[in-house]
């Protein structure tokens, strides 16, 4: 029987519907690689506008966002611009804005926010894109209408039930931050998907470069990956009933969380470096290991061919059907140090 394909956990719903970031408010983007920025409605709204938008983002702490340069669509964020990931700026540009300005006056962490803008621009330059993000530290004095991400204006054509134009395609937002950045870069510079510029190879991406030795094909690392970056795919069965399974990594989905390293029961997964953005923007999978497996005779889990035919759990239960396995670090009498022994006293000794 062919072993089923194992993939990571499913992700239902928009990527930005998760809980708010609970860390410090201005320490930069969240490091879990998932979107908690609340900008999903804005990204869905922009492509439906009849004309490109000249967009300005303002921090939530700005007390006068309505004062500034005329002619822009002003959106006040739910938090600080310093908490955005660089991929957010790339996504907004890919959604069709004519220009993107990040307002930094009255920002509580302007240096961090400027660093995020610089990272986005470095990716755009390396990819050969013709657009960039502008960081502005001084504003104008003209009065403007300020919108919130949950209160964006509806175009008149949409109110009348008319087609909003040719820019109404909305691409589902990927879960992982590297995937969101790569998707945007492929829109802004389509050639990167097939032949990434050499400059992208010089920029480190969040993902981990992995090396796998001694894989048993159990799929634990695949199930532990929060962004489904790992997959275990089985080929056609061999005449002896075994199958060759291939463990592969999708660099575009890897956030470098190292969950797979911690979860592997065989310590077969090692981190040997960092991925580059050239690895991330390419389409496809990177094979990490091949292992020939058969089904466990008792539970059906994959086990390496040529072994005893039982997975570790079933092998232990067979050797000790009424026993239990206690880890050495667990306190208890079974792990207590042996009592010291003393030599018997001689008769009449004091």
Describe this structure in words.
The protein is α/β, with parallel strands linked by helices and 350 residues long. It folds into two domains: 17-172, no CATH class; 207-319, Alpha-Beta Plaits (2-Layer Sandwich). The protein is 21% helix and 21% strand. The protein has helices spanning 40-45, 86-94, 110-127, 156-159, 177-188, 220-224, 259-263, 277-281, 312-319; strands spanning 6-7, 54-58, 67-68, 73-76, 99-103, 133-136, 142-143, 146-148, 204-212, 230-237, 243-249, 269-276, 286-295, 302-304. A five-stranded antiparallel sheet has the order 1-10-11-13-14. The chain has a five-stranded parallel sheet with strand order 6-5-2-4-8, covered by helices on one side. Strand 10 (230-237) and strand 11 (243-249) form a beta hairpin. Helix 2 (86-94) packs across helix 3 (110-127) and helix 2 (86-94) packs parallel to helix 5 (177-188). Mean pLDDT is 81; it is low at 1-34 and 166-170.
Q: What is the radius of gyration computed over CA atoms, rounded to a whole number of angstroms? A: 28 Å
Order of adjacent strands in the largest pleated sheet: 1-10-11-13-14
- Count up the domains: 2
Shape: elongated
Mean of residue pLDDT? 81
Keywords:
five-stranded antiparallel beta sheet; 350 residues; alpha/beta; 2 domains; Alpha-Beta Plaits; elongated; five-stranded parallel beta sheet; disordered N terminus
